[in-house]
From TrEMBL, chain A:
<feature type="transmembrane region" description="Helical">
    <location>
        <begin position="7"/>
        <end position="28"/>
    </location>
</feature>
<protein>
    <submittedName>
        <fullName>Fukutin</fullName>
    </submittedName>
</protein>
<dbReference type="GO" id="GO:0000139">
    <property type="term" value="C:Golgi membrane"/>
</dbReference>
<keyword id="KW-1133">Transmembrane helix</keyword>
<dbReference type="InterPro" id="IPR045587">
    <property type="entry name" value="FKTN_N"/>
</dbReference>
<dbReference type="InterPro" id="IPR009644">
    <property type="entry name" value="FKTN/MNN4/W02B3.4-1"/>
</dbReference>
<keyword id="KW-0472">Membrane</keyword>
<feature type="domain" description="Ribitol-5-phosphate transferase FKTN N-terminal">
    <location>
        <begin position="1"/>
        <end position="34"/>
    </location>
</feature>
<keyword id="KW-0812">Transmembrane</keyword>
TrEMBL record, chain B:
<comment type="pathway">
    <text>Protein modification; protein glycosylation.</text>
</comment>
<keyword id="KW-0333">Golgi apparatus</keyword>
<feature type="domain" description="ILEI/PANDER">
    <location>
        <begin position="118"/>
        <end position="207"/>
    </location>
</feature>
<dbReference type="InterPro" id="IPR052463">
    <property type="entry name" value="O-linked_mannose_GnT"/>
</dbReference>
<keyword id="KW-0735">Signal-anchor</keyword>
<dbReference type="Pfam" id="PF15711">
    <property type="entry name" value="ILEI"/>
</dbReference>
<dbReference type="GO" id="GO:0030246">
    <property type="term" value="F:carbohydrate binding"/>
</dbReference>
<keyword id="KW-0430">Lectin</keyword>
<keyword id="KW-1015">Disulfide bond</keyword>
Length: 440, 646
């Protein structure tokens, strides 16, 4: 009897677990189907309303990027849903807003198809300027939910600095917080800036989707996409106290700075070296959304890890003449170029524990200085119709450099004593002066 | 088998000795297989389940985490329920020096300015919400104003609440037709209204009279006593106040618009309303489809309405590229913009007078290029009604801006293109002056040159005068058509009066033929144009300079010929001969406009006439030695009618 019991028990167990397993398998298939069905439904709808969409989902695109594709063969995945089923309940698409005439019919149709909708709007950043303009809010994100699966449509707006902008996702107090796992969304924590993407049409899991041509480039850009809008409101207040100088000389200076900055951006982008606005140029952006007309030079920063020896040649080829070169790659490197009569200072920044510093050298005495900043990350910003980087923690950066009174213009500035973060850093040994202090 | 963790409830497996070896082996194997299978299944199930649990928990956690996701404070202002109260208290006051209207204690009209606001004030209220939908003054002391009032009252939808009140005098030119209309509306006294009477009336159009008060003027030299009318108006249900249009996106916009404002005629008609979406035939090879259009507007919603309607019905215009910039925070112009589903932007006014206009232009230009990062932009002043918005014209010429650096703009307006002086819709000119009405501008020109040095708010300059200054224009020229593509309908701009419009704009010729193919557009490039002028001068017949140029017989009765005449102009500022000539030709004579290197081109009696200024024009060399340039002096005494500059 015992034997029979045991057999029965075992058989029962096996039967139960098989049923359970089959059930789960069925469920999994349904999940897979659910994802592809939801996405399919959405894409059909998008096609009908001619939404200029492309797949912008980080997880899905990661599966598509070169490295992942190489490993693909070894990975056994569900054949029906190998790209879109990323295990997250979200797929994100980007929409080129300038190419789409906002059609509320799309949302109505989506609702009829069973999607639940959440439209998130925000202020139009293209109207943000020193003038006070106000227009209607523009759509920034659509969230469509079907069977607890979320499709995020992020609107990309073309901005005058030749880049695409997307807005931060901010919920209103009356919005349903459980609508979507907001934390998991790829887009929305911050506003961002991306370059215009070349797109290719491809077939993923049986669906026609457009994807960025260079997927890994796109994913890289997305990781560093955070964008800061200039603080126009504060800038207006500042300019009311200290009106902009509109003399022909300063107009001329501003024009030259614009040309120079555009050229610098072009050179350094080609070399793939990230740079940011530093010192006076950064202050100009932060304080007045423009250029400080009496500053007479342009300052940019580059991390020393990004230094490449062909920088100087690249600048020379673009018609900028080297004015001086101080320090060495290991210590206090600083380059200055001249374009027309505007000086471009390139400061190289050294990371050291929880601080970042750059060096300064006095040519005639060989004295060294050190300018210390708290650590910062880099964000995009727009200045003079150019997309440039600035430290994300701009206030800390500017305050470190100019003290708490950065909001008051100082016309007589001594780079050796005026900055509040300057420290004496010894003297270069006279034997090395010829090498380390080059003035042209 | 070693890896098998025994089930505590299952009995340990002990092979029986009694069985035959074969059977034992068989059972043994069978059991192992069964047990292993069962345990494997169990293990997989457990793992899968744990994963499912973990996943759900993670999602739940994230949901919780999402709770503290940055939230905006609730921007929605709490709105008082519109139907909270069903009755409106209305107070209307009429007197010689002051009128006011209060609805539920809120003053919706108050006018006690001296020398202003004379006539009949009319207010239209929404019968369901009590909102003010329109406010008008008809100065019925002056002629024709009563006709405008009739027109307006007829446009108001039935059922609206109308409030009338007279300030100072409102009957001198109030003709019988208007009085009869007031009578049919329900007025008891309208037929007896006379000189300097005071009068108020609150009535529902096509319905009951809520109250009327009248004070007769005792004598010609005195006014009637002030009257104050207090009355109550019963609000109706909102369904009754609305039309039953088909439920479409367009009609939703229409419904919103019609519940807010009045006086736009058939747009709000319940049966057969005027269209608000236009689908003009697309233009073939449309080069301007992606050119952003900025419409510059003030607080003139009716004109804005007319302007947008004609703009949108133009061939080749792309509504998505149209942005309306409103100088100030006015509701009604914004309603009009939303009615058409366009993008409207409001601008906080900076500075005063001309500087305000100029700052508004700057902000609008900047914003247009920000909104549409492309290389051209076209601008329309609200001062003009764009007929066929010259899309076809612009589409054919816009590439020139890129190809020819000596160009400043392309304009759809010819300052000298009057009925009697413009002929050929396919002909284009180059001119040194910049006609301000409806023009296309290159982004680089604005961003790199104009924007940085745009006159600052404290400079009370006209933006268009500033743009015409040599420092800005730098010798560049604009392309204009012979026959203007836009029609100025005047009395609207901030700085123009009715007389001015009558004299200078009424007889202007504008193109009514759509999609005219333009004559050899590329010949407008600098060098090609010079060659063309030389050819024209070569073939041109010199007119008889001994005759009076102001007389009709100055030109022979021919057709389609080219003539040339020479006028005296010693320096840039020596404009007297041209001004006198312009006066007798009845073209623009307030300043020198429309010339190209001292040469004007226009049509007289269907002949092309070239006017060359001698000696400042380089074309003076073509003057035969025997010809003496015409010299005209202004009449000794000028009439004092100084007209404001445009």
């Amino acid at each position: 009897m015992l034997r029979v019991n045991r057999t029965v028990v075992l058989l029962l167990l096996i039967a139960c677990s098989s049923v359970f397993l089959l059930f789960q398998l069925y469920y999994y298939r349904k999940y897979v189907n659910k994802v592809s069905l939801t996405v399919k439904k959405f894409l059909a709808l998008a096609q009908r309303y001619r939404l200029p969409l492309f797949l912008a989902d980080t997880a899905a695109l990661k599966l598509l990027s070169q490295d992942a594709l190489r490993q693909r063969d070894r990975l056994v995945r569900e054949p029906h849903c190998s790209f879109l089923c990323t295990g997250r309940p979200i797929t994100s698409f980007a929409l080129h807003a300038n190419l789409w005439k906002y059609d509320p019919g799309f949302l109505l149709a989506a609702e009829q198809k069973g999607f639940q909708l959440l439209t998130l709007t925000g202020k139009d950043p293209r109207l943000a300027s020193l003038d006070t303009l106000s227009g209607e809010e523009i759509p920034l994100h659509f969230l469509l939910r079907l069977h607890d699966y979320i499709i995020q449509v992020v609107f990309l707006y073309e901005r005058s600095g030749n880049y695409m902008w997307f807005g931060a996702l901010r919920l209103r107090a009356d919005t349903d917080r459980s609508f979507a796992p907001f934390r998991q969304l790829d887009y929305g924590r911050h506003a961002g800036a991306l370059d215009r993407q070349e797109l290719v049409l491809t077939v993923l899991d049986g669906l026609d989707v457009r994807v960025p041509q260079n997927v890994s480039r796109f994913l890289y850009e997305l990781r560093h996409a955070r964008f800061l809008e200039c603080r126009y409101h504060d800038a207006r207040n500042f300019l009311q106290l200290y009106p902009e100088d509109s003399s022909p000389q300063s107009l001329d200076f501003r024009r030259k700075v614009k040309t120079l900055l555009h050229r610098v951006a072009q050179i350094l982008t080609k070399l793939d070296i990230p740079f940011w606005l530093s010192s006076g140029t950064c202050l100009g952006w932060f304080r007045q959304c423009s250029v400080i007309s009496y500053s007479r030079d342009v300052d940019i920063g580059i991390f020393i890890v990004d230094f490449r020896s062909d920088i100087i040649a690249a600048f020379r080829d673009a018609g900028l003449s080297l004015k001086h070169k101080f320090g060495k790659v290991e210590d206090s490197l600083e380059l200055s170029f001249l374009s027309e009569d505007v000086k471009l200072d390139i400061f190289f920044f050294y990371e050291d524990g929880d601080i970042v510093w750059n060096g300064g050298t006095q040519a005639k005495s060989g004295r060294k200085f050190k300018y210390v900043f708290p650590r910062f990350s880099l964000c995009w910003a727009e200045l003079l119709e150019l997309k440039v980087r600035v430290p994300c923690e701009t206030l800390d950066y500017v305050t470190a450099n100019y003290g708490a009174t950065w909001n008051i213009p100082v016309r007589s500035w001594d780079w050796k004593s005026s900055p509040s973060n300057v420290r004496e850093n010894g003297v270069w040994p006279p034997s090395e002066w010829a090498e380390l202090i080059q003035v042209y | 088998m070693e890896t098998w963790t025994p089930n505590p409830r299952a009995k340990p497996f002990i092979p029986r000795q009694q069985r035959s070896l074969y059977l034992t082996w068989k059972y043994h194997n069978f059991y192992c297989f069964m047990c292993a299978g069962a345990v494997l299944f169990l293990l997989i199930t457990v793992v899968v389940n744990i994963k499912v649990i973990m996943d759900t928990r993670r999602v739940a956690n994230e949901d919780e985490a999402a709770q503290d996701y940055d939230a905006l404070p609730n921007m929605e202002t709490p709105r008082r329920p519109a139907n909270g109260r069903k009755v409106l208290d209305i107070e209307v006051y009429s007197s010689r020096s002051k009128v006011y209207v209060a609805v539920d204690g809120t003053t919706v009209l108050e006018d006690d300015m001296r020398e202003q606001g004379r006539g009949i004030h009319v207010i239209v209220l929404n019968q369901a919400t009590g909102h003010v939908m329109a406010k008008r003054i008809f100065d019925t002391y002056s002629p024709h104003e009563d006709e405008a009032m009739i027109l307006f009252l007829n446009m108001v939808t039935r059922g609206r609440v109308l409030i009338f009140t007279i300030k100072d005098e409102g009957t001198f030119h109030l003709k019988d037709a208007a009085k009869n209309l007031l009578k049919t509306l329900g007025s008891q006294v309208s037929l007896n209204l006379s000189w300097r009477d005071m009068w108020t009336l609150v009535v529902k159009k096509g319905g009951q009279v809520y109250g009327e008060k009248h004070a007769k003027s005792p004598a010609l030299s005195t006014w009637g006593d002030p009257v104050l009318l207090k009355t109550e108006v019963q609000l109706t249900a909102s369904e009754e106040a609305e039309c039953h249009w088909a439920d479409t996106e367009l009609n939703r916009r229409r419904k919103l618009f019609c519940s807010k404002v009045e006086g736009y005629g058939s747009i709000c008609s319940c049966k057969d309303p005027a269209p608000i979406e236009f689908n003009p035939d697309p233009l073939i090879n449309n080069n301007v489809f992606s050119v952003p259009v900025a419409v510059i507007a003030g607080n003139r919603p009716n004109y804005l309405y007319r302007m947008l309607r004609s703009l949108l019905s133009a061939h080749g215009v792309n509504p998505q590229m149209v942005t309306v910039f409103i100088d100030g925070y006015y509701e009604e112009p914004m309603d009009v913009v939303e009615l058409f589903g366009l993008k409207g932007v409001q601008h906080t006014p900076i500075s005063i007078k001309n500087a305000r206009v100029s700052q508004h232009y700057k902000a609008s230009l900047t914003a247009t290029f920000n909104l549409h990062p492309v290389s051209f932009s076209s601008f329309c002043q609200l001062q003009m009604l764009l007929i066929c918005f010259s899309c076809s014209f612009l589409s054919q010429t816009v590439h020139l801006l890129d190809e020819d650096d000596s160009l400043y703009c392309i304009s759809a307006w010819n300052d000298q293109g009057y009925e009697h002086t413009a002929e050929d819709p396919a002909l284009l000119y180059r001119v040194e002056s910049m006609p301000g009405l409806g023009w296309v501008l290159k982004k680089s020109l604005y961003k790199d040159e104009l924007e940085p040095k745009w006159p600052t708010p404290e400079k009370l300059w006209d933006w268009d005068m500033w743009m015409r200054m040599p420092e800005q224009r730098k010798g560049r020229e604009c392309i204009i058509p012979d026959v203007s593509r836009s029609y100025h309908f005047g009395i609207i701009g901030l700085n123009m009066n009715g007389y001015f419009h009558e004299v200078y704009f009424k007889k202007h010729k504008f193109n009514t033929v759509p999609n005219v193919p333009l004559k050899s557009v590329d010949s407008l490039k600098k060098d090609a144009y010079e060659a063309e002028i030389q050819n024209l001068l070569k073939e041109a017949e010199v007119l008889d300079h001994t005759r009076n140029p102001c007389e009709d017989s100055f030109l022979p009765d021919s057709e389609g010929k080219t003539y040339v005449m020479f006028i005296k102009m010693e320096t840039e500022t020596d404009t007297s001969t041209w001004t006198e000539l312009a006066k007798c030709l009845h073209v623009w004579d307030l300043d020198v406009r429309g010339n190209h290197r001292g040469l004007w081109r226009l049509f007289r009696k269907r002949n092309h006439v070239l006017v060359v200024a001698v000696p400042i024009s380089p074309y003076s060399v073509k003057k035969p030695a025997a010809v003496t340039p015409i010299h005209l002096e202004p009449p000794p005494k000028e009439e004092g009618a100084a007209v404001e500059q445009l």
